[in-house]
Design goal:
Length: 487
């Protein structure tokens, strides 16, 4: 394999690398006046990278034909689908951010630059087929994320969020590195293909501990129980556009990476890691649902909602089949749309002074004062609850159908029963907006970009989105086939 071929397979990453460096120079010489220009150019670069991922997804690339740099990277259909979600989510987050930061006089060109480099790290993560590449991508994403969480230097909540994220992220990184070292020590390689081949005859005790520590480190990144403790505090304290970013693009990258590690590197020992994934899935569903019930802050509630939804996504992974992987990716795509819409709606909740409103008390009777926002949020909340005929219901249906086909019927039954708990706090959202006495605190008009994101997301997860689901299902099936082509 020559380097020209390898570089040709990582063109999206090269575009982001070059764009990030150029934008960094523009930010350095242009100062705050260049913020708008840098944001636009960053969105253009992400859009170009997204367009460049489509051929690999359309062609169903997989196996050796997608490998690059001697097995370090795989530009297959699976990674291309994940990258497409990541890039589009990052663009949406860039669109809704300027109005928020400009009001606080904190819009600086470093923000879009950090988003680009974080996205580059995520792109490497989902393509990694070696533990070393995995760690490089993960840390590139994490270092950018720590700064983004504490982006508002004059806000104590943002500084606290950044510090918590950094400390707990460093702990998770250490756990992951320990797992990587154990895995290397007992298999003699860091390549996913080599690890899988070394375990064909069985999983040694040392390699099992390596697997456990690797999954524990990755569980932190996806906010799975019992490594979820950072999520509510960071989601609440970070600036809302940053929280929107954390809830979408990095979530896709971390889940896609976890699935690749489980199904590719440890695919021959599915029975060993399936127990861990099932526990994390069910615990995340229950803890996410119960933890959200007593929340009054809307961002904290959506943090627990994120934990809850990760549980359903992990149920698809537990199937360890192409159908389960396809269902997991289908759910992931729908979840990204629902999260983007929900946070865009929260960003639009502002009082006369332009201050953002984040509690249930602030949205009481919203349907009578801002009916358009209220109805969009109603559709989004019902979709998150899995109420038909919205796309959230079909996403859950896909996941449960996959595990039933994999003969994991008890898991499906428990998951369906646990999902009922989560419906309570989503319905509470609707009850407060439509049945409580109006307080009329939301008085400030929203920007066109925020309306665009909210409107598009609402339409996509409404019954109208069902007509697009066949195309999405085709893409997720191709992506899953691309992953299993190398297994």
């Amino acid at each position: 394999m020559d380097y020209a071929t390898s570089f040709g397979r990582v063109i999206p990453e090269l575009v982001l690398t070059g764009s990030g460096l150029v934008l960094l120079m523009i930010a350095a010489f242009g100062g705050e006046k260049a913020s708008r220009l840098v944001s636009i150019l960053a969105a253009v670069a992400l859009g170009l990278a997204a367009a460049l991922t489509i051929p690999a997804l359309a062609n169903g690339a997989g196996g050796e034909s997608a490998s690059a740099f001697y097995g370090q990277i795989s530009a297959d259909a699976y990674s291309s689908f994940a990258k497409l979600l990541i890039y589009l989510a990052a663009i949406a987050c860039l669109m809704i951010a300027p109005a928020f930061f400009t009001r606080l006089r904190s819009m600086r060109p470093e923000y879009p630059v950090l988003v680009v480099f974080a996205t580059l790290g995520m792109s490497i993560m989902v393509s990694a087929t070696d533990l070393m590449t995995l760690y490089v991508g993960l840390e590139l994403n994490s270092l950018s994320a720590y700064v983004l969480a504490s982006f508002l230097r004059n806000d104590s909540r943002s500084a606290e969020a950044g510090l918590k994220y950094f400390v707990l992220g460093a702990l998770a990184s250490g756990i992951l590195l320990y797992g990587i070292s154990l895995t290397y020590g007992f298999t003699g390689t860091t390549s996913f293909a080599g690890i899988r081949a070394a375990q064909e005859a069985g999983l040694s005790t040392g390699a099992l501990f390596g697997l456990i520590f690797v999954l524990a480190g990755l569980a932190f990144k996806i906010s799975a129980v019992p490594f979820h403790m950072w999520t509510p505090d960071v989601y609440e304290g970070a600036p809302t556009p940053v929280t929107t970013f954390f809830a979408t693009a990095p979530k896709v990258a971390a889940i896609a990476l976890t699935a690749r590690v489980a199904l590719d590197a440890f695919g021959s020992q599915a029975d060993a890691w399936r127990q861990i994934v099932i526990f994390a899935a069910l615990a995340s569903i229950v803890v996410g649902a119960l933890g959200a019930i007593g929340q009054n802050n809307l961002k904290r509630l959506l943090a627990y909602s994120s934990i809850n939804n990760v549980g359903f996504i992990l149920i698809g992974l537990a199937a360890a089949t192409p159908a389960g992987t396809s269902a997991m990716l289908f759910y992931l795509a729908v979840y990204v749309v629902m999260s983007l819409g929900s946070f865009a709606g929260i960003l639009m909740l502002r009082n006369g002074d332009g201050d953002n409103l984040e509690t249930f008390d602030d949205i009481a009777g919203l349907s009578s004062t801002r009916p358009a926002i209220a109805w969009c949020l109603l559709i989004l909340m019902f979709s998150l609850a899995g109420i038909p005929p919205l796309m959230g219901f079909f996403a859950k249906l896909e996941v449960f159908r996959a595990v039933v086909e994999a003969d994991l019927i008890p898991l499906a039954v428990i998951g369906i029963a646990a999902s009922v708990i989560g419906a309570f706090y989503y319905i509470k959202f609707v009850k407060v907006m439509f049945f409580d006495e109006a307080v009329d605190r939301v008085t400030k008009s929203a920007t066109a970009s925020q309306w665009a994101i909210l409107g598009i997301c609402t339409i996509l997860i409404s019954p109208v989105g069902w007509f697009l689901s066949r195309g999405l299902e085709t893409m997720t099936t191709a992506a899953a086939a691309g992953l299993f082509a190398g297994v």
